[in-house]
Amino acid sequence: MKRVPSRGEQGVAYFTLAYIVAFTLWFISIGNYEFIVYVITMLGLVLLVGFSLGKAEYTLAMLWALSIWGLMHMAGGGVAVDGSVLYNLELVPIVETERLFILKYDQVVHAYGFGVTAWVLHHLLTLHFPQTHGTATALVYPVLASMGLGALNEIIEFSAVLMVPDTNVGGYINTALDLCFNAAGAVMAMMIIWLRRRAA
């Protein structure tokens, strides 16, 4: 029997679909067809989460965290800041050379997003394989899987580069930094889970 989404889950869905529609219309109006690829990907993810609600038993906090990640991503490509997009905004000059800058909005989104991904993967692993709860496996596998999904994200970005000229995706260094921040976010998420478990 198909489970009916709760009021809280419906609220997340309406919020997510609202900003997807708003940013899609905005991207089309400004001719930013690169991000249409991401809109399609986002809709696919929304459907994946929606159809798996019953079996996955996501917490409401996870759903909101995923939705906020999507909003950060859409805003990153659609909000103009200082003649560029929000993704290129330099936040804190932790490392600043001719070739790279850390910390940028883009890097924060990558760390946050794939930290949330690792959290969700940890939840799914321990839910469906409860014998892994409290083991190193439950911490290591989500990190590696999140990094793999991060690599898939870079493949999608590469596809956008091939299909649409003059994208804001960036070059080799940007890709390498994205992968590093994906890994950092995933590791931090698992460290938080480990520390919370020890404190319990």
Radius of gyration: 18 Å
Molecular shape: globular
Low-confidence stretches: none
Strand content: 5-15%
The total count of strands amounts to 4
Structural class computed from helices and strand pairing: mainly alpha
* Gap from first CA to last CA: 36 Å
Strand order of the largest sheet: 1-2
Give the overall average pLDDT: 90
Q: Which H/E pattern describes the elements?
A: HHHHEEEEHHH
The largest pleated sheet is described as:
2 strands, antiparallel
Assign a percent range to the helix content: over 70%
Task: Record keyword descriptors for this entry.
globular, mainly alpha, 200 residues
What does this structure look like?
This protein is globular. The protein has a two-stranded antiparallel sheet with strand order 1-2. Strands 3-4 form a two-stranded antiparallel ribbon. It is built from seven helices and four strands, in the order ααααββββααα. It is mainly alpha-helical. A hairpin with a 4-residue loop joins strand 3 and strand 4.
